């Protein structure tokens, strides 16, 4: 599920739905997180501003400088929210998405590590944790370091077990990880599972093509 839909729903809850187009983190996750945590109005305000900045950054992707600056502002607002409550997993995830857009994937990974570690992780439901694990695995794979593949595999297997929102992406990433490790049968099976969920998934078809 695309993160643009997720952040749109967050802002629907707080600002009558006037922003749109953030992607890569599943639908409603941050909305549920915000409803379950006790925040001051000031912390909520910083979170909302950050979500709005990130939405605008995504909608201005064709204008690289504008998008970069807006994403940077979003990360700053996430930091302000975290300065008020460092245990907030939603703010950690918002920061991770912002840093990822800027291109700071390693820093984004650290933010997701914080969201998925105690005490923040205690606020996550099984499904929310699954979606965060999927995003973290995506970053691990994007960093393109073989030593991170095992960590990505663990996250993906747990995400699938917990029934993450975007199972097609999860299985496709599993296939890529198995492929990197030279486990062709497992990779083939993972790509096939991805296509069962989303038959037109290009990356899965390409993965199967590489294994032939």
UniProtKB/TrEMBL annotation:
Top-level lineage group: Eukaryota
Residue windows of the TPR repeats: 168-201
UniProt keyword list: Membrane, TPR repeat, Transmembrane, Transmembrane helix
InterPro entries given in the database record: TPR-like_helical_dom_sf, TPR_rpt, TTC36
Transmembrane regions: 6-26
UniProt similarity note: Belongs to the TTC36 family.
Name this protein carries in UniProt: Uncharacterized protein
């Amino acid at each position: 599920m695309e993160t643009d839909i997720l952040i749109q729903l967050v802002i629907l809850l707080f600002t009558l739905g006037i922003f749109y187009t953030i992607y890569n983190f599943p639908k409603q996750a941050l909305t549920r997180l915000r409803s379950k945590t006790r925040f001051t109005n000031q912390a909520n305000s910083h979170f909302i501003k950050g979500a709005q900045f990130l939405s605008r950054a995504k909608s201005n992707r064709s204008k690289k400088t504008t998008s970069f600056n807006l994403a940077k502002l979003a990360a700053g607002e996430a930091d302000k929210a975290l300065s008020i409550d460092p245990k907030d997993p939603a703010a950690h995830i918002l920061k991770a998405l912002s840093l990822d857009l800027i291109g700071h994937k390693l820093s984004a990974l650290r933010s997701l590590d914080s969201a998925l570690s105690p005490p923040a992780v205690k606020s996550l439901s099984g499904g929310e944790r699954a979606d965060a694990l999927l995003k973290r695995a995506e970053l691990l794979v994007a960093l393109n370091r073989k030593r991170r593949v095992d960590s990505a595999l663990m996250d993906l297997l747990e995400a699938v077990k917990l029934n993450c929102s975007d199972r097609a992406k999860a299985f496709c990433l599993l296939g890529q990880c198995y492929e990197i490790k030279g486990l062709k049968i497992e990779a083939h099976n993972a790509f096939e599972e991805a296509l069962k969920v989303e038959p037109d998934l290009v990356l899965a078809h390409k993965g199967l093509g590489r294994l032939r």
